[in-house]
Write a structure and sequence with these properties.
Layout lengths: L2 H11 L4 E5 L2 E4 H17 L7 E5 L6 H11 L2 E4 L6 H10 L4 E5 L3 H9 L5 E5 L12 E2 H7 L14 E7 L7 E6 H15 L7 E4 L11 H6 L3 E4 L5 H11 L3 E4 L1 H9 L12 E5 L5 H11 L3 E7 L2 E8 L15 E2 L4 E5 L12 E6 L6 E2 L3 H7 E2 L2 E10 L5 E6 L4 E3 L2 E3 L1 H9 L4 E11 L3 E10 L7 H12 L6 E4 L25
Parallel strand pairs: 1-11, 3-4, 3-5, 5-6, 6-7, 10-11, 10-12, 12-13, 13-14, 26-27
Antiparallel strand pairs: 1-2, 8-9, 9-19, 14-15, 15-16, 17-18, 18-21, 20-21, 21-22, 23-24, 25-26
Length: 509
């Protein structure tokens, strides 16, 4: 099976069910499939051969689903890019990923022009959003291209081990990498998500406010093949997002912690006419006090996922029942049922409960490597496992507790300090909104713990008072230095870039 096979079957079985909604516009499953097939044929008619790399620079919109599925049906390799990236970085990724076609919106006209000028036999398609005029620009008009194309599925042979996408990920370093995912891997991710989080019944629905070029997009396929409904929003605003959930009676919400925290700060809560049955959160640590508040406000509906681009979405899960055990709220959960997850020492031996080690993952959903980077691939893929470079401990029941990246561990006087433990303590301070911890040079200890903190609006607290707060909670692991900052530097994917801490603030993107 390949992704196109599952899409075609689902469109036939669930043809009249609403599959995707954006604002006031919706498409049924059969309509999504028809438009996806037209796109696949339109790309082929424009010269794209099966296996061609198609760059996609499109914000969350109704067409997001058909673009992903159209690439799958045509046997094209989708290179989805985050629209928050700057122009030079977008062009750099397109070049590094060997893209020869591009689908874009009007805001990226300059990128399209430079992309087309950079090499021969390139092709671009311009999708006009609601506030943009159709036609014009460097690329062919998206709707005009679809109107002329056939609705028949292209006769392209696609194997399960054919490349489905190059998933551009910056991780925590800010340096994009092309993660190779096959059709088989994409299907395995979909199956894993359905097993662990549900959404497998016709009519089930989910809100997707994250960039669909990133984690949120992985939920489109499992919901589509199940006859489900994806409600997409472009810019997250707590009240508007919750209103969309209530209007469509959305069952599940897929959020990053900052979105969930913003909802709580805005006073969002279940109403007499609507309450979510599930809130899935992940991609960044969730401060303990906000997780407790989420449970108080929304009830036992929280589910955490931990994954990374190299093992998309699927490493461990802390399900709704787990959240009822307060002792587990600091955990990332237990391995997905169909995935092998271990915590090992430097020799590859499983650590004992409570000891530190690295999380490694094995399963059919994992990447095949990094595009054009065999050296980095060899560092990460070893003996059949993805090495995550995430440090963790594991308890007797198999619950994993993340400690931070291996390259972030702080060695102070020969003692290893996990930044995440310090950050969790800082997040418990009533005046701290965000915190990030790094090691800095120290003449005696080698490294010392330094914390960068963002205060809550209106809060006033001195750095020395924050150190005193940490003293009884962390002992020798407490920060030696605290710097209060207006904001923490983050990538376009919402992850804190610790290498940027201490540098002058970058211009907003």
């Amino acid at each position: 099976m390949n992704v196109g096979d599952t899409i075609e079957r689902a469109a036939r079985v669930h043809r009249d069910r609403v599959a995707v909604t954006f604002g006031s516009r919706s498409l049924r499953a059969a309509e999504v499939y028809e438009r996806a097939a037209r796109l696949a044929n339109g790309l082929a008619g424009s010269g794209a051969l099966p296996g061609a790399h198609v760059g996609v620079i499109v914000p969350n919109t109704l067409e997001s689903m058909e673009i992903e599925f159209g690439c799958a049906l045509g046997g094209f390799i989708r290179v989805a890019l985050n629209v928050r990236l700057p122009e030079e970085e977008l062009l750099g990724i397109l070049e590094a990923m060997d893209a020869t076609s591009l689908i874009y919106t009007g805001a990226f006209e300059a990128v399209a022009e430079r992309f087309l000028a950079a090499g021969p036999d390139r092709f671009a398609i311009r999708l006009a959003l609601a506030d943009e005029e159709a036609g014009g620009g460097a690329g062919a008009d998206y709707e005009a291209l679809l109107a002329k194309a056939s609705t028949a599925r292209p006769p392209t042979a696609v194997a399960a081990d054919s490349i489905y996408s190059l998933f551009s990920s910056s991780g925590t370093t800010g340096r994009p990498k092309g993660v190779i995912l096959t059709h088989g891997a994409q299907l395995a991710v979909a199956a894993n998500l359905l097993i662990e989080y549900g959404g497998g019944r016709p009519g089930d629905s989910i809100l997707l406010p994250q960039p669909l070029s990133h984690g949120g997009g992985f939920f489109m396929l499992p919901y589509f093949v199940s006859g489900g409904h994806c409600v997409i929003i472009r810019a997250f605003e707590p009240a508007a997002a919750f209103e969309a959930c209530e209007r469509h009676q959305v069952g599940a919400l897929k959020l990053v912690p900052t979105m969930l925290i913003d909802m709580l700060k805005a006073g969002i809560a279940p109403t007499a006419s609507y309450a979510p049955r599930q809130i899935i959160y992940g991609a960044a640590p969730m401060p303990h006090q906000w997780l407790e508040e989420s449970l108080r406000v929304f009830g036992p509906v929280m589910a955490q996922l931990y994954g990374q681009a190299e093992a998309p979405m699927c490493i461990t899960v802390l399900n709704e029942e787990d959240h009822e055990d307060e002792s587990l709220l600091g955990s990332a959960g237990r391995p997905y049922r169909m995935i092998d997850v271990r915590v090992v020492d430097g020799e590859g031996v499983d650590v004992a409960a409570g000891e530190h080690g690295e999380v490694i993952v094995r399963g059919p959903h994992m990447m095949s490597g990094y595009w054009g980077d065999p050296e980095q691939t060899a560092k990460v893929l070893r003996a059949g496992y993805v090495h995550t470079f995430d440090n963790a401990t594991v308890d007797e029941r198999g619950y994993v507790y993340l400690l931070g990246r291996s390259d972030e561990m702080i060695n102070s006087g020969g003692f290893n300090i996990a930044p995440r433990i310090v950050e969790q303590a800082l997040h418990g301070h009533p005046d701290i909104a965000e915190a990030a911890v790094v090691g800095v040079d120290h003449p005696h200890w080698g490294e010392a713990v330094k914390a960068y903190v963002v205060l809550r609006p209106g809060a006033k607290v001195e750095p020395a008072a924050i150190v005193d707060y940490c003293r009884p909670r962390l002992g020798m692991q407490r920060p030696q230095e605290v710097e209060i900052v207006a904001e923490l530097p983050k990538s376009a994917y919402g992850k804190i870039i610790k290498s940027e801490l201490g540098k002058p603030a970058r211009e907003s993107r």
